[in-house]
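note to self: dont lose this again. the chain is below, predicted strucutre after it. 402 aa total, dont forget to put it in the shared folder this time
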Amino acid sequence: MTSDNHDLVILGGGIVGLATAYRFGERFPDRRIVLLEKEPELARHQTGHNSGVLHSGIYYKPGSLRAINCRAGREAMVAFCAEQGIPHEICGKVIVAVDESEVPRLERIHERGLANGVKCEIIGRERLAELEPHAAGVRAIHVPEAGIVDYVAVCRRLAEIVRERGGEIRTSARVTAIAQRNGEVVVVESTQGPVAAKLAVNCTGLYSDRVAKLAGQGPDAKIVPFRGEYYELKPEAEHLCRNLIYPVPDPEFPFLGVHFTRMVQGGVECGPNAVLAFAREGYKKTDINLRDLCESLTYIGFLRMAAKHWKTGCGEMWRSFSKRAFVKALQRLMPEIRAEHLHAAPAGVRAQALSRDGTLVDDFLLFEHGRVVNVCNAPSPAATASLNIGRLIVEKLAERVG
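---
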């Protein structure tokens, strides 16, 4: 027996799911929404472990969903935070070339940023010293539009607004089955009972590929979990970083590299590295889920990626177990950093879609199957872009709502 029919059921209570519920209620205020979240609280996974950066959109391929949605989403997020009184700050960041060999890559990032409409400029050592006196570098890109925000607070407020508009949010509601009936209704079975709705959106992050399969069609790529481990500066060392300090990304490795992030609630995070997590919720080295691990290690896409990036991957693993090696990586950006300046901070797990050819899916991945819209790859800058991703999803749903 299903609960009363809804117009939309959203699976996943992270920032993308909540932003979708918010945008749907904004556009269709008389329609019935229910959101299902498997945890007792909202924003417990990727959103709750986010470092809180408001990205500018400088890195992403022009014309990609990441580039387009990051720019528009950033503006929407800043406006939402200002309107709702959510802690945020436009503090700017620097992307630093530590030696002359990195300058050509720095210049290419600058060109991409300009193509994306990002306000940014290449600066010399003297200007870098004014912005970040303790950062090493011969040149840098200054991105004044970058900022910091409390994404969990954003989620709390989005949930409040959804409920104020009459939407329903059910926690401890893990999805167990999905059936599309007669091309007219989606029935979602969960640990809080079944729900019937005209439309469904899958925003389940770490489990998005599995949930898409429950709905009838999984993506070509598979979610592989990568843990990002952090340290935090002790209070006596926080003066070493004023805002956000990033390295020039290594084009041979598909992650940004360790960096320094001042957080809006105080403190400075240092990291992350990027290592295979042994569970989709593997926040600790000792967290092991045999199904998740076997799925990753037997997936041809992961094996091909590992074969290509094994040397860099070994370095990431070594930094996971050696604080000294982690500190050495940080010292490239900030020579004054010492091991005694750092204490361990909570890790995060990135739900990364990996193609069979061994390449990371380099854009947001949204696809429809019947009456279900699946969000099967939403890495950074998804939190920054979430309000626009929600708008994009609602546009996909709009023609079916009537």
